[in-house]
Fold:
Amino acid sequence: MRKFLSILCMLSFPALLLAQQPDEAVPIDFQAAGREALEHLKALIRLDTSNPPGNEAQVTAYLAGQLRQAGLEPQLFEPEPGRGSLVVRYKGTGEKRPLLIMSHIDVVPVVEKEWSVPPFAGVVKDGYLWGRGTLDDKSMAAAELQVMLLLARNRVRLSRDLIFLAEADEEAGGRLGIKWLLANHPDLLDVEMALNEGGRVVWKNGKMRYVAIQTTEKIYQDFEVIARGESGHSSVPTGGNPVALLIRALERIGSMKFPVELNPVTREFFTQLAPIFPRGLSLCASRLENPEEGAQCAELLSVNPNYNAMLRTTCTPTILKAGIKENVIPSEARANLNCRLLPGTDLDKFARQLRKVIDDDQVELRFAREPEPRPGPSPVDSPLFQTIRSVIEAMAPGVPVVPYMSAGGTDSQVLRKRGVLAYGLLPFPIQEEEIRTMHANNERIRVDSFIWGTELLYRIVVEAAK
Ligand SMILES: [Zn+2]
Structure:
């Protein structure tokens, strides 16, 4: 793009030259930009990238077309046919190290008949855009695209490069997305800091309540639970049916109550938000570590599934596999147990604890995937976190900005492991019941929220990279 501009400069007359002077104060019509971004989001929703199989290359082709029109030069990657990721760089002066804005462009599958609108039609109804990916995570992709387009069109001067990454395969662990890119093109993602999904702007009763910036996340760990026995004729049961053994083992795990434990991130989250919680909860949020009231308070807060998941480790079965025929007792029954552990948990010790609770030598419990070392949280005193805070204060005065540990996993972890300061920010104000549509039926985003969040993202990026 630089080259193109300099040729243009040489050929053109002074007025045009003036227009190319870097200007950070280009007035932007954020309503118009947001509406344009909304059209991009609709287009992305209409490209079905349910993973599996993914087919993210449809989305990278769309993004590449838009970016090229603005004079940018995206790089496209396809480690396997159809599994596309895209990286594009908007050049800064290079005084500071790059900032990465990223989003995943695959989505989880849908059960279409359970939706009240078609999930891949990009329908706007009742003030919402509906569809798979409207929150997780194509809204981020569309907003990030818009940020790149605005910067390129207005030739905004930045002191660091801004890199936009749209990645495949996040919902399946990132083997063909972030992990492939880091293994094969690490130079492209050599950045100082990153903005990704994972945070929340919480909206309730027509008001913005707080902004949660994800600085860490729980440990994702799957376990295989395998019950074994002897196969046989179901007309003469012998008592060692693996299906029954597996159910008993899962019941025992299900009845476990994991202890409440705060870490620096969740401690700050609950203490800072205590004043804005409803009465009752408000007192409790600041007394979680109080020896007398702590336990009772934790129970009260745990009624909210999201707070419950922040306060303790959780485990829940997600897949069952058993049986080959109605009248055959199978020799094996398997379950996948999905656990989200508090950071710092010793995984071997935890597995031993689960085995002890199952207490059955016909049932094996093992790691579905060997655990990897986990990085610590990104700091709250970094310039990027402070920038996020100050931009939010300017756009939404008085709304608290707090660090957040997400229960869900994101690709920020692999970046943190490499020393990148990564923050999760889903910049669109959303209500609790909308948050719950992620990975569920009727996923949707409020149109006004999307437009507001696109502006917030743009302002944060410019401020952090100026
Ligand atoms: Zn996601």
Observations:
- The radius of gyration is 24 Å.
- The chain has two domains: 29-198+409-465, 219-367.
- The domain at 219-367 is CATH 3.30.70.360 (Alpha-Beta Plaits).
